[in-house]
Amino acid sequence: MGRFEGRVAVITGAARGIGFATATRFAEEGASVAVIDLDEEAAAAAAARLAPVDGASAIGVGADVSDAGSVAAALARVVGELGGLHVLVNNAGITRDNLLFKMSEDDWDLVLGVHLKGAFLMSKAAQEHFVAQRYGKILNLSSTSALGNRGQANYSAAKMGVQGFTRTLGIELGPFGINVNAIAPGFIATEMTDATAARLGIELEEFRRLNAEANPVRRVGRPEDIAAAAAFLCSDEASYITGQTLYVDGGATLG
């Protein structure tokens, strides 16, 4: 019996990377999973790659998490097709890195819109279901960049905002049986970080080596590392934990 048997989990930005690894872990542990992505075709393809256990299923849903109407339609479809909603993982994200004097308003608005407004809209829509059933788990993805990172004023602001948002929802929603937590990943080997290496003109393996040497465990993170933490924080084993941000970074922020 999996930890999420009989549960429905929604993961945004789940067509690839951390989101897909998380969707995979939840499916392996018994959940029916809704893969949410801006690209509906990619979402459907990712859902088809999952292997839900007996009695569970997976669907791919296209949605713009920064648009309230799109969010409402997506969750209505999830509840209609999968029969409920119990877990929300706000993972969708983009980067538009640049130094402040080069950063455009669009760069700022897009990043804040997806990361912070997206988490707000998805959580607001999901909590209606959670409050009614007096049960729910919300997990937000922050980042070690929340502590500040050159060239990421927009991303850092959004990710620290996610931590404040998480703490506040922990206070507001705890009385209704809803746990709200966040994970702040360190360097994780994904398409997004691979693109950063290309943008900086650094060979991928060298880029990963340098990041591995910057933390005490001397390796880069994998999407599965975040998925494992997500599975715990969204399980009933973590029912006495709320409003917290767990740094999963190989100890990079210890120094």
Summarize the structure.
The chain is α/β, with parallel strands linked by helices.
Plain-language structure description:
With 255 residues, this protein is α/β, with parallel strands linked by helices. The chain has two domains: 8-186 and 222-248, NAD(P)-binding Rossmann-like Domain (Rossmann fold), CATH 3.40.50; 189-220, no CATH class. 46% of the residues lie in helices and 15% in strands. The chain has eight helices and seven strands, in the order βαβαβαβαβαβαααβ. The protein has helices at 17-28, 40-49, 68-82, 105-133, 153-173, 191-200, 204-212, 223-233; strands at 8-12, 32-37, 58-62, 87-90, 136-141, 178-185, 245-248. It has a seven-stranded parallel beta sheet, sandwiched between helices. Strand 5, helix 5 (153-173) and strand 6 form a beta-alpha-beta unit. Helix 1 (17-28) packs across helix 8 and helix 3 runs parallel beside helix 4. The longest helix is centred in the middle third of the chain and has 29 residues, at 105-133. It is globular, with a radius of gyration of 17 Å. 46% of the residues are buried.
